[in-house]
Every structure is written in C-alpha cells, then in structure tokens.
Design a protein that fits this description.
about 60% helix, globular
C-alpha cells in the first residue's frame, strides 16, 4: 500500500523527507492501513495534533475505518508523536490507555 501523498499537496515532499531522515517513519502504522508513521510525526510537528486520537481518528480516520488496526497502531503512533512533541514514556502510556478506552466503543459487541 502507498501512503496518500496527494493530500499533502506541496508538502508531500517534506513528509517523504522525514522518512528519508528516519527509516522508522517509513513504516506503516499497521499492515492493513495505507498510513505511515511519517504521517503521525508530521501531524504532531505541523498540524497541531496533540493526542493519539487526533492522528488515528481525525487525521487518518483509522478509528472509524478499522478500530482493531487503530488499537494495534496506537502504541507506535504514540511513540512517534512523543518524539516530535518532547514527551516521555508516561505520556505514551497514558495516551495508549486513553485511546484504547475510546477505541473499544468502536468495536463490534460480542
């Protein structure tokens, strides 16, 4: 799967450059999603994304499209955002906990 670069317009090259600078950012957020870790880092750095929910629900809509994949991606997204925002491990843990609580509401009952 390819990341949807066209949504970044003239900034697409800058998002891709983040991947060139850090190969971890080239990784997919989840194997069943087209979104890359660079998109989470970009959202934190340039789009005022301050919470994991901002990336997985508002920027990529992943929570609404595939809640299970969003849950699985949350820890890595939190770590990428923490690196951009200067947060530590306790922030990562709290963000993942908070996102899991939210995401469970989007899973089928049963």
């Amino acid at each position: 799967m390819r990341a949807p670069w066209k949504v970044y317009g003239s900034e697409a090259g800058a998002v891709r450059a983040m991947e060139a600078a850090d190969e971890n950012l080239a990784a997919l957020m989840h194997p069943s999603l087209p979104y890359r870790m660079s998109q989470a880092a970009w959202a934190a750095r340039h789009e005022m994304a301050a919470r994991v929910e901002d990336v997985l629900a508002r920027r990529t809509r992943t929570l609404f499209l595939n809640a299970r994949a969003a849950l699985a991606a949350a820890p890595a997204v939190a770590r990428a955002m923490a690196a951009e925002l200067g947060h530590g491990e306790s922030w990562v843990e709290e963000e993942v906990r908070s996102f899991r609580e939210l995401a469970r509401r989007y899973l089928p009952a049963g």
